[in-house]
Amino acid sequence: MANLITAFRLLLTLPIVILIKLELYALALPLIVLGAISDWFDGNFARKENKGSDLGKLLDPYVDKVFVLSILIALLEKGFVGSGVVILILFRELSISFFRSLAVQKGLIIEASNMGKIKTFLEFLAIIGLLMGLPLSSFILWLSVVFAYLSAYDYIKRYMNVSVREV
């Protein structure tokens, strides 16, 4: 069930991006909120029902990246955000995906850390705030970048600890 909810979030991405490109922000906003809620719900459902899977541990962060980055790129195109913040987030996400794929090759699945979850929450909050025109939204997005790199350090440290033990 949790993986279906995650897949639903992935399917929401394209309509949201199209709505942003068409400047139908009031229609995009509830879909983004629905996507954010689904992210919280799928993780809690998997943990509560003790039905977390290796697929879910890989699928959920992938879908989060596609969802957030697609929306941020659409917002960049419309002038809501600058390229610097999007590039920093994109670089972090691609780097962590690289380290996670290395870990999978070693039979290790690196789950999302609490800092990574905070980062994702802040990204969702910033995106929603940007579309609503709330003044602190850009600050919240930059704060998500801070958490993004703190959590990246944590992921890389965990990966390196496993790699060192294997040598």
List keywords for this structure.
single chain, 167 residues, Four Helix Bundle (Hemerythrin (Met), subunit A), 0% strand, globular
Gist?
This protein is mainly alpha-helical. Helices cover 84% and strands 0% of the residues. The mean pLDDT is 88.
Fold and architecture overview:
By secondary structure, the chain is mainly alpha-helical. It has a single domain (2-166), classed as Four Helix Bundle (Hemerythrin (Met), subunit A) (Up-down Bundle). Helix content is 84%, strand content 0%. The mean pLDDT is 88.
First and last CA, distance? 39 Å
What is the tally of beta strands? 0
What shape does the CA trace take? globular
CATH superfamily: CDP-alcohol phosphotransferase transmembrane (TM) domain
Chart the SSEs and their pairings.
Layout (H helix, E strand, L loop, with lengths): L1 H20 L3 H24 L5 H24 L5 H23 L8 H19 L4 H30 L1
Helix pairs in contact: 1-2, 1-3, 2-5, 3-4, 3-5, 4-6, 5-6
